[in-house]
């Protein structure tokens, strides 16, 4: 059971943009890592774009399960995990991250923010904290 990506996005008008993200691509071949990370960023933006405000969904994409939560205020979170990772835990994590993010980052920064301009550093910690350690890894 693994988490690969945890992203915070803003579903604004007219498009979705990434505010902050954390990735764990350590299980992939060194030469695949950047393209895997690009795929996860693109997929996170795409499923957020296709999700309605105030909705939650789990979408299968290749061998991954993407869990998306779009709040009514346009703030969205996406977790990309393997098929075995519990859905309930993913949505609990998304709730926690989006609540904390909205308290620490001004709502005025969401429409124009980017990973370079948003200062919120908790995603990497959450990604490793919620990583399920299986014997032998």
From TrEMBL:
Membrane association type: Lipid-anchor
Domain of life: Eukaryota
An annotated GO cellular component: Golgi apparatus
Main location: membrane
Keyword Lipoprotein (UniProt): yes
Alphabetized SUPFAM superfamilies for the sequence: SNARE-like
Coiled-coil intervals: none
Keywords: Lipoprotein, Membrane, Methylation, Palmitate, Prenylation, Protein transport, Transport
Domain Longin: 8-127
Record Pfam families: Longin
UniProt GO MF annotations: SNAP receptor activity
GO biological process entries: endoplasmic reticulum to Golgi vesicle-mediated transport; protein transport
Compartment(s) of residence: Endomembrane system
Key word Disulfide bond present: no
Family: Belongs to the synaptobrevin family.
Name of the protein: YKT6B protein
């Amino acid at each position: 059971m693994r988490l690969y990506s945890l992203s915070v996005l803003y579903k604004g008008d007219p498009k979705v943009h990434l505010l902050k993200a954390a990735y764990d691509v350590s299980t992939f071949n060194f030469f695949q890592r950047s393209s895997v990370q690009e795929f996860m960023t693109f997929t996170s933006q795409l499923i957020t774009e296709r999700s309605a405000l105030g909705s939650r969904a789990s979408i299968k994409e290749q061998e991954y399960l993407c869990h998306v939560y779009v709040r009514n205020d346009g703030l969205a979170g996406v977790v990309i995990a393997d098929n075995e990772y519990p859905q309930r835990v993913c949505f609990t994590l998304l709730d926690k991250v989006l609540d904390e993010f909205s308290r620490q980052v001004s709502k005025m920064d969401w429409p124009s923010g980017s990973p370079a301009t948003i200062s919120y550093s908790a995603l990497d910690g959450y990604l490793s904290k919620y990583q399920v350690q299986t014997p032998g890894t």
